[in-house]
Amino acid sequence: MSLKYCQGPECHTYTTQDRLKGMKGSKTFQTRRRSNLLFDEFCDRRCFEDWFRKYGTQAVNHFGRLKEVKHLTEQNAWIKNYDWRVSTDDSHRYFTRNEITKEQRPLTEAQYDDTNYTLNER
Ligand SMILES: [Zn+2]
User: Which residues contact 8 (CB under 8 A, 6 or more apart)?
Assistant: First the structure.
């Protein structure tokens, strides 16, 4: 199991006991190392936010800034849902609803569970 470094630019400045490492007389606060990191890069939310505050705008510009409104159209507004009040053996428990037209259609449990099943156009 390999440890990864938290990418938070200020991680080492947060003076928690788990960051204090080294031999007596030469202890330092150190960047956290973890096998599991938030978004695979950060030890916690604060470190993620530090990074984003410093580099977020550069990252958005690098990967492509949204410059026009995106549209969720009627053809792609089908959202799956279920009614928890309906008993599990009732065929009306699962449904998909078009959030624009408000049309609602029943789903089988298999259709509900199938992540590839949708009425949305691709
Ligand atoms: Zn961190």
Answer: 31, 42, 43, 44, 46, 47, 48, 50, 51
At 13, list the tokens.
């400045």
Protein residues placing their CB within 5 Å of the ion ligand 1: 6, 8, 11, 32, 43, 47
Q: How far is the CA of 64 from the centre of ligand 1 (A)?
A: 27
What does the pLDDT look like over 59-99, one tens digit per residue? Answer: 999 999 999 999 999 999 999 999 888 776 666 799 999 99
CA 4 / ligand 1 centre spacing (Å): 11
CA of 8 to the centre of ligand 1 (A): 5
pLDDT digits (tens, 9 = 90+) for 3-59: 999 999 999 999 999 999 999 999 999 999 999 999 999 999 999 999 999 999 999
